[in-house]
Amino acid sequence: MTETFGQLLAGFADALTPLNLLLCLIGVVLGTAVGVLPGLGSSMAVAMLVPLTFKLEPTGAFIMLAGVYFGGQFGGSTTAILLNTPGQSSSMATAFEGFLMARKGRAPQALATAAIGSFVGGTIACVAVVFCAPYLVDFALRFGPAEYFALAVFAFVATAAVVADSAVRGLTALGLGLALGVVGIDQQTGVARYTLGSDALLDGISVVVVTVGMLAIGEVLHVAARGRDSQRLQDISTGKPWLGRSDVRRSLLPWLRGTGIGLPFGAIPAGGSEIPTFLSLGLERRLAARRGRSEFGAGAIEGVAAPEAANNSTTAVSLVPLLGLGLPTSATTAVMLGAFQQYGMQPGPLLFSDEGELVWALLASLFIGNVLLLALNLPFAPVWARLLKIPQHYLYASIAVFATLGAYAAKLAISDVILVYAVGLLSFLLRRNGVPLAPVLIGVILGPLAERELRRAMALGQGDPTVLISSPIAAALYAVLAAAVVVTLLLRRRAKTA
């Protein structure tokens, strides 16, 4: 412990040099700006910056790339709250209650809650990365095909049950998401599935297309269809600029619970930040219902605090398998792995000994980046809230433009733009009929993972289905899921008889 603390202090000494501090600031600012734009995620920002960093010293380059990573994860919450248009898929869960808070005139409070939640989750996760990295790596190594499949099933059922008042509608939405997720060439057999004879669908429908189409274009169509009947954003009061005591008191435990849920997910390649953010949203919703004073569905601050803390804690911990195992757990960390290799470094167990100075400076910069993000975004929450004063037709026209550019930039394909608007139309129809969007999104994200790991598990077990529950982790996940379903059914029955 003492040795680790000393190495961290040495890392702070390197990270706090004027040049590295400036690079960290540039990184978080660029990341936040890119994160705000629908479809342009932190992975794209890091990929575009990698060639520009080759003239920098490796330590400074990776400090800036880490700043972009953190800033991008945070920036997605701004438009999620203000416009119901998440900049990144990891901010989807925040949009549900955050946008409702904005419509109630509490946009500054929602933005401040997201900023502090990101800081709390990111800082606690950085401490865990520094002092608990060996244990987190060991935890990641325990996950095999059966565990990944159990985790995906857990996320499917939890999300479908959490965000839908009707189980039928929740399962219908989940089925649609799974159907979209299996479009394309089967990776094991090479057979094209559900492509309708279109070459554009051979690569499948990307998460970027579905996220942007569902949440950005779908919101634009929804507002346009309502026309004069929709609440004008510029008529919404921006309210008081800071969090009150009641807001802090209600957010404190959700910040901590969201962080706790997000920590283990960063260490395993199981879908990035989306699972923990939705799980934390579901947990807070159930706890609020149990207390009997739930504001979920009307702008609950807990529904912003917990997902944002979970999001950033997952982001920080995702560097553990990257640095310790050379195993990327997200698209952004995959790009960073390529950057390490470009510098002639191979992340893994020897990286801490061979490139210790760089690694500890990078870890120290995570703390600095969190502080910079809080300092940059918390005071500007009321300023961001004033975006709602922009005339609505200009605002949503801009969303459509940026969403279209974001979809095109991912693969530079016109077919993706067409798909974005097709998915947006589907989203509009689902919303008009009261079908929730979250299960669709989680089905698209986790469907391919669940299918792949199920087939791998069955192959390893030679067709024996008991292999799916043979490990303690998988069995524990199924047991928790079964208990949650039983409790939910009992509570619903009690509510009907009351």
TrEMBL record:
UniProt keyword Lyase, yes or no: no
Transmembrane segments: 21-41, 61-83, 110-136, 148-164, 171-192, 204-225, 358-381, 393-422, 470-491
Keywords from the named record: Membrane, Transmembrane, Transmembrane helix
A Pfam family assignment: TctA
InterPro entries to which the protein is assigned, alphabetical: DUF112_TM
Residue ranges occupied by any DUF112 domain in the UniProt entry: 21-441
PANTHER family per record: TRICARBOXYLIC TRANSPORT PROTEIN
Name of the protein in question: Tripartite tricarboxylate transporter permease
